[in-house]
């Protein structure tokens, strides 16, 4: 079976439906961007793939699968499906079953637009000085490598 693995962006919110026997299925519209930018438009080509997420994962994740979310997905059983368009012509769509799904963006980045908030309150500055080390001389922490290597220089 063919598999497709990559990072995609959701083109629309996930749609939850149920089969006749009650199995939950979430339909995903995944946009995979690939290739080089078109010199005329400055955009990279996009491959749209219909993904289906089955079972309890579909029910529990649907509310988080919102338009614009970036996902790392693995699709299995990827195949070309033909369908009739509204104008009567025949169209093709790439479809697959979602095996693994991982959110690339954090939930805060996905669901909430960037809000400008007040800077966090700063703690008052304290005039604190480290206690002096009375009785200890100011030691030089550097090891005198030059003196050692000048006397014991070896080539390996």
TrEMBL record:
Source domain of life: Bacteria
Q: Which InterPro entries match?
A: NA-bd_OB-fold, Primosome_PriB/ssb, ssDNA-bd
PROSITE patterns (UniProt xref): SSB (PS50935)
The region called Disordered is annotated at 106-139
Query: Compositional bias (Low complexity) at which positions?
Result: 107-117
**Pfam families in the cross-refs:** SSB
Entry keyword ATP-binding: no
The Gene Ontology terms for molecular function here are: single-stranded DNA binding
Q: What keywords are annotated for this sequence in UniProt?
A: DNA-binding
Q: Tell me, which GO biological process terms does this entry list?
A: DNA replication
Entry annotated with the keyword DNA-binding: yes
Name recorded for this polypeptide: Single-stranded DNA-binding protein
Q: Which organism is it from?
A: Paenalcaligenes hominis
